[in-house]
Specification:
The protein has about 230 residues and is an all-beta fold. The chain has a domain of about 150 residues. The chain is built from no helices and 15 strands. Strands 1, 4, 5, 7, 8, 9, 10 and 14 form an 8-stranded antiparallel sheet that branches.
Length: about 230
């Protein structure tokens, strides 16, 4: 299945950066740069992003972003961040319902070393579906399949939240999952090629389906925001 991976919203202003396997406490957070609870009254990509391969099967319904791809087709739709933000905190998404039968959603971070850089230097994504969770180096995706940094079977009781976080020195991207948005387990880590650093980030979120999916089950996203343990999604 072709997986087009998507970046999700970036929120700034948290008081701390999540470290490997650190359990964040609920600190007070300043207003995030991006927060999206997918209310139906707003555009499908909110105000922080623009549609990327927009499709009528990507909809806001009842406070969720829902991807209902047609059967037996390689398809993708998503929201592409309009501009980069400071990568000061993890970007995370709450999954209300996981897709099945080749239906997936993804969170992607495109990073920049500083504001003078016009094109993203690195591209990293986390794809999640009922069949599997995969952490990808997107820079290797063309023309060969993406390098899979880490992966796991989907475990519903443990995997309700997914996030991509910068390391303290901004030289790595860390993928994590959580049952509650408070207690995180590390899936994998991508060390960025020198001299690149994850100082700024453009986020994309999206979803789609595969040609082998004959009875696709939609994926539903509850929210995206940034301060672990203290955001509006907790």
């Amino acid at each position: 299945m072709t997986r087009w991976l998507v970046a999700i919203g970036l929120l700034g202003g948290c008081d701390r950066i999540l470290q490997l396997d650190e359990v964040p406490q609920p600190p007070p957070c300043s207003m995030p740069m991006v927060h999206d609870d997918f209310e139906a009254s707003t555009p499908v990509c909110g105000t922080w992003a623009t549609p990327y391969d927009s499709s009528p099967w990507m909809l806001r319904q009842n406070g969720k972003l829902v991807f209902t791809p047609p059967p037996a087709l390689d398809t993708y739709a998503g929201c592409y961040g309009s501009f980069p933000f400071p990568f000061d905190s993890p970007v995370f998404v709450h999954v209300a319902k996981m897709g099945m039968d080749e239906v997936f959603a993804s969170l992607e971070v495109m990073t920049y070393s500083d504001a003078t850089v016009t094109n993203a230097e690195t591209d990293t994504s986390l794809s999640f579906a009922g069949e599997a969770i995969d952490f990808y180096d997107q820079d290797t995706c063309t023309p060969q399949p993406c390098d899979d940094i880490a992966g796991s079977q989907y475990i519903p009781a443990l995997m309700q939240w997914f996030q991509l976080a910068p390391s303290a020195d901004r030289t790595s991207i860390i993928a994590q999952y959580s049952p509650d948005g408070l207690h995180w387990t590390t899936l994998g880590q991508r060390d960025l090629p020198p001299p690149f650093k994850a100082t700024l980030v453009r986020v994309v979120i999206g979803g789609g389906g595969g040609a082998g999916g004959m009875n696709p089950v939609p994926v539903e996203l509850e929210s995206l925001d940034l301060c672990p343990g203290g955001g509006a999604g907790i």
